[in-house]
Specification:
- The complex is a heterotrimer of chains A (about 325), B (about 100) and C (about 90).
- Chain B is an all-alpha fold.
- Chain B is built from three helices and no strands.
- The longest helix of chain B is centred in the C-terminal third of the chain and has 35 residues.
- The mean pLDDT of chain B is about 85.
- Chain C starts with a helix and ends with a helix.
- The C terminus of chain C is likely disordered.
- The chains are: A mainly alpha (about 325), B mainly alpha (about 100), C mainly alpha (about 90).
- Chains A and C meet through helix 1, helix 2, helix 3, helix 9 and helix 10 of A and helix 1, helix 2, helix 3 and helix 4 of C.
Chain lengths: ~325, ~100, ~90
């Protein structure tokens, strides 16, 4: 179809144009907005490639988490005006450009010289997906065949959070992160932060639930829940919690710990780490997703809130 | 009956697409941040609203129709709030110049 | 009908992508935020049209998530921009 080809070409050109502009613009805030718009366009690319799960994750993470993180970084950078005004030397920029070009050429060569038809495990996976009782092959792979990867990812997320916390000064350890709102309360934002989170929570739980049979899952749903929590914090309706609260830490660890315990139980019962007993596969997978969702949401929310810089009393 | 519904869909969706075009043209051609904001909110409310209205007869099942309406309500509320916030910020900048 | 819906989806997407020109020209950050918002709404409309044609309810779910994230993201940006630019709110 000519129309489809023209549309794909126009989409590719737009994506490249936005990316080029995002990299070359001077003002940091404009670059962050361009980055989020770029994420939206890439999500359209994913839909065009029939990868709606990836599109969901792209939109949720890029628009929700990364955008706000970069915005916080922009705000922090403004205090160091000298560092922002300094520009790297010409040789350094040339070296970076050469490196990026080499990576791009390597990726392009790899993609263009793929054997056709590509060797794939998709047919056997699709055939044996019925054993899990799941309708979504992505969830089947993520939580069934490659559950070990998902378990390690959740641990990596926790490690990232610990890394962020370790930036705080020693005297603030165990305190609260900086509140995310300014002194003046914008009434429109407060009203919005009261209106949206209930709807957002319902949609987030729905996305987790529908991940069994259609694109979705715990990561996208958890990101939506984290975004709602961040909205409440940004409107000033709640302050970020103290990182020393044992309930908070329990919630953070509960998801990966439960996943790990299921894996060990699989070792004992079914003869392999993370092996599910056959008739209980789908309930176990759903339970893992449900327990992981709050952990992911709280972890992501705290990642954006930042390191503790205030005493716990305030 | 279904032919009448199809005609309704085509008319509503075409009108919605027209408002999207109007919103973009306004965003590109209006002289001021505030007038551009006005054009943007028309595209949000009317453009998406008419498209959703035109799609309601085309989807089968109550859940599909409910999702369409939820999407439209979300964009309505967020568009209204964001318009307020952006206008407030633009006014602050204009005042400080 | 399916061709009409697909055609409208492409038209809406192309129109909102045209708005990216304002991205480059827009003198203030507020203009750029508006372009991002328009892009979000346009892709939602295109996704809803595609979902009606192909019967994929996943596209509608994606449109819902985009609506939610656009709402949250725009609020965050409008607020965050105010803080970074002028310090405290007047």
């Amino acid at each position: 179809m000519i129309v489809a080809g023209a549309f794909d070409l126009a989409l590719a050109v737009t994506v490249l144009a936005v990316a080029t502009w995002c990299v070359s613009v001077r003002a940091t805030f404009a670059a962050v907005v361009a980055f989020v718009a770029f994420g939206l366009l890439v999500a359209v690319v994913w839909v065009r490639l029939a990868a709606v799960d990836v599109a969901l994750t792209e939109v949720a993470i890029q628009g929700g988490i990364v955008g706000v993180l970069l915005l916080g970084a922009t705000a922090s950078l403004r205090r160091y005006k000298a560092a922002v005004a300094e520009r790297s030397g010409a040789t350094q920029r040339l070296a970076v450009a050469v490196f990026c070009a080499v990576v791009f050429l390597a990726l392009a060569t790899a993609v263009l010289t793929l054997p056709d038809p590509a060797p794939t495990l998709a047919p056997p996976v699709a055939a044996s997906l019925l054993a899990f009782g799941l309708g979504n092959p992505v969830t089947g792979v993520l939580l069934g065949y490659r559950a070990i990867d998902t378990l390690l990812e959740t641990v990596v997320l926790l490690l990232a959070l610990i890394g962020v916390w370790s930036i705080s000064p020693d005297r603030s350890w165990g305190g609260r992160p900086l509140p995310m709102h300014s002194a003046g309360r914008a009434d429109a934002l407060v009203y919005f932060a009261r209106l949206l989170p209930p709807v957002g929570i319902v949609i987030g739980v729905y996305i987790v639930w529908v991940g069994a049979d259609a694109p979705g899952g715990k990561f996208q749903g958890g990101t939506i829940l984290a975004a709602m929590w961040m909205l409440v914090m940004m409107a000033g309706l709640r302050n970020p919690p103290s990182v020393a609260r044992s309930g908070l830490r329990l919630l953070l660890v509960a998801g990966p710990a439960f996943f790990f315990i299921v894996g060990l139980a699989g070792l004992a019962i079914s003869g392999g780490f993370l092996a599910y007993p056959a008739p209980y596969a789908k309930p176990i997978i759903l339970l893992i997703e449900l327990v992981l969702t709050p952990s992911v949401a709280v972890t992501l929310g705290l990642l954006v809130a930042g390191p503790p810089v205030r005493d716990a009393r305030q | 009956m279904s032919f009448a519904l199809d005609v309704l869909s085509v008319v509503a969706i075409s009108a919605g697409a027209f408002f999207f075009l109007a919103g973009t043209v306004g965003l590109l051609r209006f002289p001021d941040t505030f007038t551009r904001l006005h054009a943007l909110t028309k595209a949000d409310n009317l453009g998406l609203g008419l498209v959703v209205l035109g799609l309601l007869p085309q989807v089968d099942g109550a859940l599909g129709a409910l999702k369409l309406i939820v999407v439209w309500l979300l964009i309505l509320s967020s568009g209204a709030t964001v318009a307020q916030l952006i206008a407030r910020r633009a006014r602050l900048i204009a005042r400080s110049r | 009908m399916p061709d009409f819906l697909i055609g409208t989806a492409i038209f809406v997407l192309a129109t909102t992508a045209l708005g990216l020109l304002r991205f480059i020209y827009g003198p203030t950050d507020a203009d750029r935020m508006m372009v991002a918002q328009l892009l979000g709404t346009g892709s939602i409309a295109a996704l809803l049209l595609v979902s009606a044609v192909t019967g994929l309810s996943a596209a509608t779910d994606l449109a819902m998530v985009i609506a939610l994230v656009a709402a949250f993201g725009s609020a965050a940006f409008a607020k965050g921009a105010r803080d970074t630019e002028s310090g405290e709110d007047a």
